[in-house]
Design brief:
Blueprint lengths: L9 H11 L7 E10 L4 E10 L2 E6 L10 E4 L4 E4 L1 E6 L7 H9 L3 E6 L2 H6 L2 H10 L6 E6 L10 H4 L2 H9 L3 E5 L4 H5 L3 H12 L3 E3 L7 H10 L3 E2 L5 H9 L3 E5 L7 H11 L7 E4 L13 H10 L4 H6 L3 H6 L17 E4 L9 E4 L2 E5 L2 E2 L34 E5 L5 E5 L15 E7 L5 E8 L7 E4 L7 E5 L2 H14 L2 E6 L2 E7 L11 H17 L7 H7 L8 E4 L2 E4 L4 E5 L1 E2 L1
Helix pairs in contact: 6-8, 10-11
Length: about 575
């Protein structure tokens, strides 16, 4: 660990200085480049010298030694810093490596990532080994440290122990604590969570909030307790309230909350014209949402909505780096910074034609560079196909609960009274109620109810992808549900849809049943097929991946199905406990 505390060792720094002295040739010279200088808030021309992964000079001079230098004439190109995604959830079927590789093609070369699936499912040694090895890819990977599971899990005190959280907070790659999905517990007097916030502050690290719909008073309380930023503003008024209480505000454009265009209109109406306390984020969107881009899309929307161009770029670069105290190495094109640079065809088009990440070409003249991101050997980190040593039978599918779960949208669920006969082996297709089971991935417990609003004619869907990593079973036909489970088990994890005993659609998730090994481009194809098949069977919402993830997520209202049982979020009580098998 100690040798990684410095971005460059002494011998590297001496070599960088020797480039200026002419003793060593730069590796790349970007000649006569028009680039965004965020210090002067101007587009300026300069020669940019790069040695390996670092910018060693920006100015009028040319290198005295160019023996082994790749020289690029940038007279007709426009350069901006690589974009930073400050709020990535790198486990939404894709994995951290495939997300980073895909994001780089749209100019996002630095990601600040959620550690939820790592802390829940991997040993600390395995997780930290993965963090270490991801340092070697062209993208820069930072992380957060969660303080709660975002659901009611069994043995939470073991996973989110004081020693475990402190180890994560002390890790060099971790920039912040949070997001604080468990903030109601904090307000109710959870002193351990408050202690972790204090520890993060002591280490000069940030605290990310999660305060959807929070009142002005709640926002003020959370600021007093240590929150620094929040990404849950859904209107201009909510942006205004957060800015008034001293927050950094992370504006969101995501698959379940594509709010940015309306927020920017609201901000204009409210006269908000200062942008240096604002960031952009895409909040871990599903892969299909990223088909048209990532943070470049947000810059484009901002420019179209009349945000000053330099401010639009700053919200995806310099503002984020400054906020996280990494602006000495990221977020600008300046001497000493990591060589993350996007090459644009025009100032108004933020999607890059070429991309340098840590001084390596990952995209060149519109084409992805082969081999820039090499495949990983995932099993060394404990990420391997799911091995289930138990079987599912129709005896596990007994439904007698008096009320079920009704979907209001992709992620909000409410209770409803069950009025149909759920003791049958197959439900009719003249209504939108399905059998719904959450099963322990180790086969030790289950909870069964009905789900209203998910689909009308879906025979069976089995998913090892969920918020807690447990198995979700949904459908009208119990035999097909068992068949879907068996196929999911055979795959080593995934999402499987079955109809009349035949597999209709499947998304293999061979990394612990949670993530795909495939490039995001291929995952998008699979996800599109899944959505199409679900829509044909009555799914009417926008994002089934988030629906599956958030059935257990107790940071959202109103009723959730968790490891502990059916859970009333507002009253913080287990209504019906899970049943041991």
């Amino acid at each position: 660990m100690l040798e990684q505390r410095y971005r460059w060792k002494n011998k590297h720094l001496r070599m960088h200085v020797s480039v200026l002295d002419g003793k060593t040739s730069p590796t790349i010279l970007l000649k006569n480049a028009l680039y965004l200088n965020q210090t002067f808030r101007k587009w300026m021309r300069a020669n940019i010298w790069i040695y390996e992964d670092r910018i060693v000079y920006v100015g009028e001079n040319l290198p005295p030694n160019m023996e082994t230098c790749e020289i690029i004439d940038c007279t007709n190109e426009i350069l901006v810093p690589g974009y930073i995604e400050p709020h990535a959830h790198p486990f939404q079927l894709y994995n951290p490596l495939t997300l980073a590789a895909y994001a780089s093609q749209f100019g996002t070369t630095t990601l600040i990532n959620d550690n939820m699936d790592l802390i829940l499912h991997l040993k600390k040694r395995e997780a930290f080994s993965l963090l270490r090895d991801l340092r070697s890819i062209p993208s820069t990977m930072f992380w957060w440290c969660r303080f709660d599971a975002q659901t009611e899990i069994l043995h939470e005190e073991e996973i989110f122990s004081n020693s475990n959280i402190k180890s994560w907070l002390e890790h060099d790659a971790v920039l912040q604590g949070g997001e604080l999905t468990g903030w109601p517990k904090l307000l109710d007097g959870d002193d351990m969570m408050l202690h972790w916030i204090q520890e993060a502050k002591r280490m000069r690290k940030k605290i990310e909030g999660h305060f959807p719909g929070a009142s002005e008073k709640t926002l003020a309380k959370m600021m007093l307790l240590g929150a620094d930023c929040d990404h849950e503003a859904m209107t201009g008024e909510e942006v205004y309230n957060r800015l008034m209480q001293g927050y950094m505000v992370s504006l969101r454009y995501s698959s379940i909350r594509p709010d940015l265009p309306q927020i920017l209109d609201d901000m204009k109406r409210l006269g908000i014209e200062a942008y240096d306390r604002l960031l952009f984020n895409t909040d871990g969107s599903s892969s299909t949402f990223y088909e048209q881009g990532m943070n470049d899309q947000m810059i484009r929307i901002a420019i179209e909505k009349g945000v000053p161009v330099i401010d639009a770029y700053n919200m995806a670069t310099a503002n984020i780096a400054k906020y996280y105290n990494i602006d000495h190495i990221h977020g600008t094109i300046a001497t000493g910074r990591v060589a993350n640079i996007n090459f644009l065809s025009s100032i108004e088009n933020p999607t890059p034609v070429s991309v340098l990440a840590k001084g390596k070409w990952v995209k060149r003249n519109g084409v992805q560079v082969d081999g820039a991101y090499t495949a990983n050997t995932w099993d060394q980190y404990g990420l391997k196909p799911l091995e289930l040593d138990w079987n599912l039978s129709t005896d596990d599918l007994q439904f007698s609960m008096p009320f079920g779960i009704k979907m209001e949208n992709s992620v909000i669920t409410k209770p409803y009274s069950i009025a149909i006969d759920a003791s049958v082996d197959e439900l009719p297709t003249n209504h939108d109620e399905c059998f719904f089971t959450l099963m322990d991935r180790n086969g030790k417990w289950r909870i069964n109810t009905l789900l209203k609003g998910f689909a009308t004619t879906l025979p069976a869907l089995a998913s090892s992808y969920s918020n807690s990593g447990d198995i979700i079973l949904i459908g009208k036909n119990k035999q097909d549900i068992v068949h879907a489970f068996n196929r999911m088990k055979e795959l080593g994890g995934g999402i499987v849809m079955v109809e009349n005993g035949e597999v209709v659609c499947e998304v293999p998730l061979k990394l612990n049943g949670i993530m795909s090994e495939l490039p995001v481009e291929k995952l998008i194809e699979q996800e599109k097929r899944l959505l199409l098949e679900l829509e044909e069977r009555g799914y009417k919402f926008s994002d089934p991946i988030y629906s599956l993830a958030f059935f257990s997520a107790t940071h959202l209202p109103y009723i959730r199905i968790t490891q502990q049982g059916m859970y009333d979020v507002m009253n913080k009580t287990v209504l019906f406990p899970s049943i041991m098998r």
